[in-house]
Design a protein that fits this description.
This protein has 342 residues and is of the alpha+beta class. Helix content is 26%, strand content 25%. The chain is built from 7 helices and 17 strands. The strands form 5 sheets. The protein has a 6-stranded mixed sheet. Strands 1-2-6-9-4 form a 5-stranded mixed sheet, with helices on one face. A two-stranded antiparallel sheet has the order 7-8. β1 and β2 form a beta hairpin. α5 packs across α6.
Amino acid sequence: MTVDALTDVTGLRVGHATRRGEGWLTGTTVVLAPEGGAVAAVDVRGGGPGTKETDALDPRNLVQKVEAVVLTGGSAYGLDAASGVMAWLEERGRGVPVGTDPAHVVPVVPAACVFDLGRGGDFRARPDAATGRAAVEAAAASVPGAPVPQGCVGAGTGAAVGWLKGGVGSASTVLGSGITVGALVVANAAGSVLDPETGVLYGELFQGRVEYPPEPVHQAALRRRAETVPRNAPPPLNTTLAVVGTDADLTKAQAQKLAGTAHDGIARAVRPVHLLHDGDTVFTLATGERPLDAGGPFAFNDVLAAGADVVTRAIVRAVRAAGPVDGPGGVWPSYEELYGSR
């Protein structure tokens, strides 16, 4: 039985650590690979990325597999969450061996952050190593194949998409070959996720299953926007992050290609994308359980196309699952609050 989420990729588990209230509106999300790691790659296209250990994922470099990927709030400060994940992995002897003693390992934990500083009211309330440890412990404690909590949780707690509330979303698909491709996204874009003329989510237009909001509903949403978005507000410093997972047996070069193609999924759901104040980053994790069809040189194309598709669907789910926020750090209505669940 599938749950239409990243955890449908056997061996991948997801954990969130969420901080809300008393100045907090942030958190961390960890994607935990099976013991022994997964082939990993990354593609960074935003003009203002905040990342850690991404150079290690270059196909030309030594590291082949990683044990976890960290997505976090807190901008560059929040990358400290990866330290907590590293410590947890080291305690279990999980990482790159660097000596004859099995305990001598260096966990390579790629990480990327979104900008949510001050959205809970306190600029200094941001994830740290303890937050990262809580998230990886939640992932480890989860049942394999468990549904992924979505919306304002983990790294999506303080996320915003334009003037709307953002969050975490996930989706998956099973190809005719039996290969599973899934995605987890933190939707926190400077661009818009909805068509300004109709109020329809761009990602749903791509999916081809659209019910247009009634005109009075759309006009009411536009009035709410005018009320909640201050004039002359500075441009949002935002980022969309994704982890695309698959049980296909991929090389690092193939995994990097999948990460790059998956960015098309962001471009279908967010306009514009990859701006100077975005840090759009996509990671790939491939567990290698299912071989590609050796007799079909283009079999990988189906995986590439699916990666972009599930990213688009995950963004739609993130926006639809997000709840509104009205607090000391600002006001972000939710899409469902304005337009309903149609």
